[in-house]
Amino acid sequence: MTPRYAFDATHALRGSLLRKLLPCRRIILLSDFDGTLAPIRPTPAEARMPARTRKLLYLLSNHPSITVGIVTGRSLPDIRRKVGKSHMLLVANHGFEIFFDRLSWVHPWAERAVPLLRQLALRLRKQLRPFSGVLVENKRYTLSVHYRSVPKRDVRRMREVVLDFLLPFWKDFRITEGKKVVELRPNVPWDKGTAIQRVLTLLKREKHGCVIYIGDDTTDEDAFETLRGGGITVVVGRKKQSRAAYWVRDPAEVWEFLAALAITLAERSKP
Ligand SMILES: [Mg+2]
After folding, report:
1. What is the DSSP string of 127-148?
2. pLDDT tens digit string along 130-174?
């Protein structure tokens, strides 16, 4: 499926937003963080939401008929620091952790993986010492090897070392790759898509008609698939193949999309 550009001359997205959101009593807006709300930086620590995006998300999360959530591969403490104090729902570690108000949930398999992941992170860091710019991040329930800052000439060799080290653990862990990152997570059928289903159940919202999801990476495709036919799905970056219905260029256009949503909500609440 090829997504449709959200801001084309027909304003297809605005029309679709109005049509789909008018009958909704409650709207659930879910968004990925890196590359979606925050532009990608050389290291994950440097990534920040632009002030206007942060402001608009806070505004939306305080609207009585909308629940705003961030769905990310980052760990829960990490995404909490990035988002700041808010009413937002947080789905961290690719869905293995969910936090909202007083509700806190961790996938039981993820808890079992903690000791081995800690060990693997230490050993992998040692193996990768010869490479500059590589970052092994132990996120408690998953592990990420970021290599955006590794010199181009070293990337191939570095990836070989990482995969050679991780492959013997393929029964317990799944290896996935995203934008300049290799990730390891418990080998259970669990991803951003299944995590979203879990969120909708927790929020007692099983019908997907009023769910919006925005994301930019391969892991977000699972969420698009879950919401196909029901929710409003937006991929960031032009892609020939995506399960999302719409696409926008970059995080700046994600802000435009959120602004369109805020305007739609205002129109909807007119008497
Ligand atoms: Mg992303």
Report:
1. HTTTSTT-EEEE-SSSEEEE-T
2. 999 999 999 999 999 999 999 999 999 999 999 999 999 999 999
